[in-house]
Amino acid sequence: MGQLRVEKEKIAYARQLAKEIAGDMDQFIAQRSTVASERTVLRLLGIDGVADFVPYPNLVVEHLQDKGLLEQGAYAPVLNAMLAWDCSAQQIAERVAAGDVHLDKVPQVSAQRYEEASRQVVAERLALLERRKQERDTYIQRWGDGEQPYLYVIVATGDIYEDVTQAKAAARQGADIVAVIRSTGQSLLDYVPYGITREGYGGTYATQENFRVMREALDEVGEELGRYIRLCNYCSGLCMPEIAAAGALERLDVMLNDALYGILFRDINMQRTLVDQYFSRMINAYAGVIINTGEDNYLTTADAVEAAHTVLASQFINEQFAFRSGLTAAQQGLGHAFEINPELEDGFLLELAQAQLARQIFPEATLKYMPPTKHMTGNIFKGHIQDALFNVVSIMTKQGIQLLGMMTEAMHTPFMHDRKLAIENAQYVFRTMKTLGDELEFKEGGKIERRAQQVLEEAIQLLQDVRDQGLFLALEEGRFADVKRSREGGRGLSGVFLKAPSYHNPFEDELRSRLGLEARKAQLAGGREA
């Protein structure tokens, strides 16, 4: 499509402001870890399962807290015990849970033996993630991949086997991405449920076993169709890095993984979220996962016209946090939404301006575009038209991931025939308007261009304010989504702790090295010395 006339210097300035905002948080994040990040280390070591319904990673971390060892990190005490008693990580966890092992009383193995074993363990465990990534590449090479915008639909029955039935049906209807919506409230659980689940409220629990079941099912239907079907789930919440690790181990392709969403919409403590998002995104980066961010949700609590600039400012910030964790631009599904009141005159023009502005500013991102929800009603015919207009904007501006709108959005969780109609709607628009954007140019000084320039100017002002006052204070003042949060409030703060000088997480160190983040490590080391 013809380009909007927005000053490249202003875009560069906005990106620099966001870089400074994210950079200001680097020292804070680097000096801290969380119980969820340490449980993730244990999961990467191979610990899984439950004892009396409590996950083993939780039991081991709680044991380390009781013994005053957690500030050193969970990795070293467990690996030392593995070497001292010639056990697997899983066996150590089971013995800790049974009370047979106290990790503060394990004989210390020699430094040489520890270092040699550590290098081998980390290499072997990360090789599992690498193999899963290679599997994805092999399937895509064999079967091919859908064209962007990817058609994204949801299943949300609560029963993983019913989800499988609906997911296969959606794939046969033309879906490129199937998202299994999590059970309501799971993001507030400070543990990852275990095993196959057949009940949930408003969705299905995100468990590693459920990931495995759905991944196998989508591979089966992918073989049938000769097309790779991507699987999406959610790793936002109190277990962000743990679920990222589970998803990487089971070859998920897309993860909801936002630096701010849990703070704003789930009242998860901002310190906890910002620390956890760093490690979780490193895992997603290495696993080749596309992360989706949640700026679209801002427009469910704030007016889509007045708050458009907050979406753009947050996209800039999320981009910079993502880069700091090693994610490429193509792995970033930066979120926005078609949420302007349909009764507003020329509202379509404003929607087009926002979508095109996002595409120009983030040209390599796999932009995630959300359908109308806030202004959907029980009038399914009008809703179907709203969704069609949403699809028009997407194909004109070359969005990356199209979360298909359902005409029954305001009534119930979509049925299989609702999805079929939504997919047919998008396919019709995408097919008949495939290169429409290439044929059009924007009127210089017209409404669309002026709107884009206004949104960028307001985003810059917001980014300047956030840079000057700091991200924590900006969140406390409700600068995003009209939601105010306290830096000492919300869920999960008790799970944040300062790292001891002896803190050790070789998974993070190795991922940082493989993702080319050594410069960041050197900068942080210099900051600590200063």
UniProtKB/TrEMBL annotation:
All residue ranges annotated as the D-Lysine 5,6-aminomutase alpha subunit domain in the record: 4-509
EC number: 5.4.3.3
Keyword Transferase: no
Keyword tags: Isomerase
InterPro entries, per database record: Cbl-dep_enz_cat (IPR016176), Lys-AminoMut_A (IPR015130), Lys-AminoMut_asu_sf (IPR037086)
Superkingdom: Bacteria
Name by which UniProt lists this protein: Beta-lysine 5,6-aminomutase alpha subunit
Species assigned in the record: Caldalkalibacillus horti
Organism ancestry: Bacteria, Bacillati, Bacillota, Bacilli, Bacillales
